[in-house]
Design brief:
Layout (H helix, E strand, L loop, with lengths): L1 H27 L22 H4 L5 E3 L5 E3 L8 E2 L7 E2 L8 H4 L5 E3 L5 E3 L8 E2 L8 E2 L11 E4 L5 E4 L8 E2 L7 E2 L17 E3 L5 E3 L8 E2 L8 E2 L5 H4 L24 E2 L8 E2 L10 E5 L5 E5 L7 E3 L4 E3 L34 E3 L4 E3 L1
Antiparallel strand pairs: 1-2, 3-4, 5-6, 7-8, 9-10, 11-12, 13-14, 15-16, 17-18, 19-20, 21-22, 23-24
Length: 360
């Protein structure tokens, strides 16, 4: 009976520990995913940070554990990011991209109240795992006391642990990478379901399990020692239009531009924009800027010439324009015909609708 109670107790303890283990795993992938992460390297668990700890006053900010926190809105007349990252202010805020930040993974702030998804890491690397936020990395293990032979370092490599075993003992005879007198049956890549990289055979030797074919990498699909590829995202590339390579042999659909914007039209590939056209050296009047707006060309017409806004140049005759006290019909075209529907007042005399002139 006592043995059955012990067995049942061990199962209950394992079930109680399961949620904590899952929490640690979920936080580990996004460790250090913001400039100020909320990780606790001592325990391996992830402690989310708050808006106050980040000094964030507005918008959405990373919580350091792969999620986000809402930090409120700004007063009227101010914008989020106008006073600094996730701070209210009156200055304009230009969002940054993952590329601008040098971020290759996790969640980061765009400095203007929104967050960026900067991609995932290839196992066994994790986001921030090398100690640098928003960078993929892995912190290698060290040999434990009493270990022998070659052992996995937890980052895809192998450690050389200890010296030779005492006489009469073999590495693996006391368990994986432990000296002992029992026989050791070496593991194989196929037996362990490993497709790539290096593993230990449990008997003190290393095994090379092969390489992946590009664009796949070892662990690239998120499963350690398996060939795979995780496509990048439009956000990680800092693009909002076009169809760039997803780095896994496919393409992304990053959307289309609207209005006068074109993809790359502002000078940045993969970003919607428009380059305004400037006025020519002798252009006058109001002219389109080529991007949905208008601009005033400042060239001044002289010598009795007038500015024709339809051509943006100085001419001697402009349809529909009063040229002074001697002309009274405004819609008289330059071809000599007269339209009597509109008039300019004569300063002296009366308007002759046949000639379009002011008679004395």
């Amino acid at each position: 009976m006592g043995g059955k109670r012990d067995l049942r107790g061990r199962w209950l303890r394992m079930l109680m520990m399961l949620p904590l283990a899952l929490l640690a795993l979920s936080c580990g992938e996004e460790f250090g995913a913001s400039v100020e992460d909320g990780s606790d390297s001592g325990t391996g668990n992830c402690i989310p940070t708050s808006c106050d700890k980040q000094g964030a006053q507005c918008g959405t900010a990373p919580d350091g554990c792969g999620e986000t926190v809402q930090c409120g809105s700004c007063p009227a007349g101010e914008v989020c990011g106008g006073g600094g990252q996730n701070k209210c202010g009156k200055n304009l805020c230009t969002p940054v991209t993952c590329a601008d930040l040098g971020a290759t993974c996790g969640v980061a702030s765009d400095a203007c109240g929104a967050t960026l998804q900067c991609g995932n890491c290839s196992a066994p690397e994790t986001c921030g795992g090398g100690g640098e936020p928003n960078k993929c990395g892995c912190n290698p293990l060290e040999c434990e006391a009493g270990m022998c032979g070659k052992a996995p370092d937890g980052c895809g490599g192998l450690l050389q642990c200890g010296d030779k075993c005492p006489s009469g003992e073999i590495c693996g005879g006391g368990g994986a990478n432990r000296c002992g007198t029992n026989p050791c049956t070496p593991k194989t890549c196929a037996g362990e379901g490993v497709e790539c990289g290096s593993i230990t055979d449990g008997c003190g030797n290393g095994l090379n399990c092969g390489q992946c074919t590009s664009p796949q990498t070892c662990g690239g699909g998120g499963v350690p020692k398996k060939c795979g590829c995780t496509p990048t995202t439009c956000a990680a590339l800092g693009r909002n239009c076009g169809a760039p390579d997803d780095l896994c042999g496919g393409t992304l659909n990053c959307g289309a531009c609207t209005g006068s914007d074109t993809c790359g039209g502002g000078g940045t590939p993969g970003v919607c924009g428009c380059t305004k056209t400037a006025c020519g050296p002798k252009e006058c009047g109001v002219k389109s800027d080529g991007c949905g707006g208008t601009q005033l060309c400042t060239y001044e017409c002289t010598g009795g010439l007038l500015c024709d806004n339809t051509q943006n140049k100085c001419v001697s005759c402009v349809a529909g324009v009063c040229t002074g006290a001697t002309e009274c019909i405004t819609s008289q075209p330059c071809d000599g015909t007269i339209n009597t529907s509109m008039y300019c007042p004569c300063l002296t005399g009366t308007c002759n609708t046949q000639t379009g002139k002011c008679d004395p």
